[in-house]
Structure prediction request, 818 residues.
Amino acid sequence: MFCYNCGKELNDDFNLCPYCGADITRYSDETADKAKEYIVEPDVKFELLGRELFFSPRFLEYNTLRKRFFEKAESLEEEYIKFYKSRKHTFVGLFDEEIPEVVQKVTSAVRFGVDVLMEYGIDDIDDTMLANMVVQSGNIKESLGYIYAKAGEIQRYAENLGDYRDIKKASRGHWEGGGFGVTGAVKGAIVAGAFNIGAGAFHGIGDTLTKASDKAKISGMKQELAIDPRVATCLFDTVYDFSTKVFYCVEKLLIENDLIDEYDFDEAAANARAKNYIARIASQASAENVEKAIDILCDCIQQAPYSTILYVHLYNLFTGRKSDIHSAAKFFGNERNYKLSLLSADKKIVDSIKTEPEKTVEEIRKKIESYETLARDNPYLNVATYVKALEKKAIEIEKEAERTSKAQALEKQIKGKQKELAEMIIAGKENLLWDMAECDDLEAMITLKLYYYKLSNPACGEQYAVREKMTSLIQRANSGNKFAEYLVAFLMHTVLDYTPWGWQSVGHKEDKSKYFREAKIFADAGNILAIGDIGRWMCAINDSEQGIEMIKMAAEKLEPFAALKLGNYYREGSKALNIPQNPSMSHYFSTIAFAYGLSENAKTVAGPLATAAEKATAENIQMKVQSEAEETSDEKKSSTSIGTVGPASIEAQSAVGMDKKPLEISDVSPCPKAGEKTQTTNVAEEAKAEPVQSKEAEQQSKTNASFVGNTANKKTPSNSAIKKTQSKTMAPKSKAVAGLLTLFLGLVGAQWFYLNKPVRAIVYLAITLLGIFVVPGAVSFWQLFLFGESIFFFVAKAAKVEKYSKRAIKHKKQVSKE
Prediction:
């Protein structure tokens, strides 16, 4: 229970209020009628939620006057908020511009008040006189108390750091007393029209401090205050509160001149009465009690129409359309405070809705409905941002489900088609696939691309890995097959892509540029596979927007390498390419790539095509063994197999794309890790040197000779000399030895002499000499670098250090076996 006189909460068994002494038991309809006698004249009927409220014409005239001032105050506050939000906030700007602007708005309200007084015939009150009345009814400094208190804390903190006498002189005193007092400032500003009253206030804080850390601390504290959201609230409220104070000053003058009636609204009693009935509902919830409470609240509004809390109670109790409540609050000039109260109350509901789950479309729709229902009740609540975000998320979930379903269907379709095409290769119908590719059959082109990718295994990073099967591809390229020309460029560029950076040379980069240009010719012609490759290579060089668009174009057409790359981008996200993390998109495109058999890093191909490639490799090996077994020459054990084809040899022989010269098998086979060239036997010349051969070998030699070109005039070393040279060149290199040489003899480049890199070794020696004789002291940094390099050799994979180790070991086994 609450006291009707002072509004204090009381125990239900109290008869007298212990705070004001009011007799609680004497509260009756007579007391209520006494409170109504000022305003109740059943002349004008006002309806609220089906209840009738009556007000006298004189009161409605008073309400119109009051409403004009309160609407003016709201308008001035909105202008100030717009001004404040347009600014970059600083400590100096707070006192030089933002606080003076508050006074400017209050001055505008005073000018408005003088104009209203003149409407009522009071023309002997000017701005200064009304301003004096406003200032006497409230102190601006108290209203801005939070700002001044915080500024004072900063000032005291600065004073404690050292001698502050110079700072006090620089600041020209506090904004207090005399002409700089708040009261004086307001009156002076209004009279003189000058609003720079805060220009000297607190300016000197920290300016004369000599210690950089102290100055930085003070500067940070100032800026923290300038952007404090409570400062903004304090400024906004001050504009509104002091603008409304003008009304009460004008009201007093009009009452003194008998121009309006005086109304004394007992808000404390009305609020206490409302609380009592709200409390009853909390303990005895029923429809009857709710209706009774609504009746009482409407009655209380008639007694105290300017009590905002009564409208808020009514808003919370009534479950129907609440537009009547909003209209009533606005009619009595309470809209601003009523709006703030509703927003504050509904914020808790909004926060509660935010915590609800939103993993499914149904859950999202439910949350949107909750937001929209709340917004229908509270027109001041803006939930459009929340609703828009949820609708976007619902669309994404629907798209994700659609993509997942589509990915599953595509996966099944791709695997089935790949199995069918792989069986064609296994059955020896590869030529049929080439015919399909010539007719722009995308699946056939993808199948051939993956087949030769797996067959040549360019991901191993060794150019010599492109073996006998590549000869048929080269033949097709020489015969003018455009797709074969593209495949050669793709495979050779990919080999160089996987070459470890430590072993790349200028020649390798030139090779990559060449193959890039050749592949781009096919991309420009609309080859979707080439478009995807060019896009990937462009993005590997830099974050190319054009490259990512090409990748997207190819991925949408189910090109596996582009799909895998795009899936990786969506998984990790890329700010440079404006690609957000999107697990759904990543899963979709990765599923396409995996369906084709690509691994996560695209270094291997699994599935039916891998089986076909492995079978073709096994058949090549078997044919080679049979051919060697039938050789009867004295040099049978040292005879070489069909010449190895590598990217560099292809570059020397081929006209893929731009050169347009017949492809040959070169008499040199460079390896990206070798740094030197090793001579091998030319297939055509060996065919002439050894007439005694099996039919298969003879036929194979003729086949190779058809695209080798005219190399008959070249001098070919003997097979024994070749083997001797190869054995010497391909000796395995130990990473432990390389590491130890770097650690103890790295200054003279011993490790690179050991690894057959004499040029790099000489560079190391030159750097050492430069550090000793030209840049004293630099040797220490050079030794530190070499120490790191030695660690690299110890921890690196063997393949990175043991140059050609795999090839050399294989060669030794082959020689031993033969």
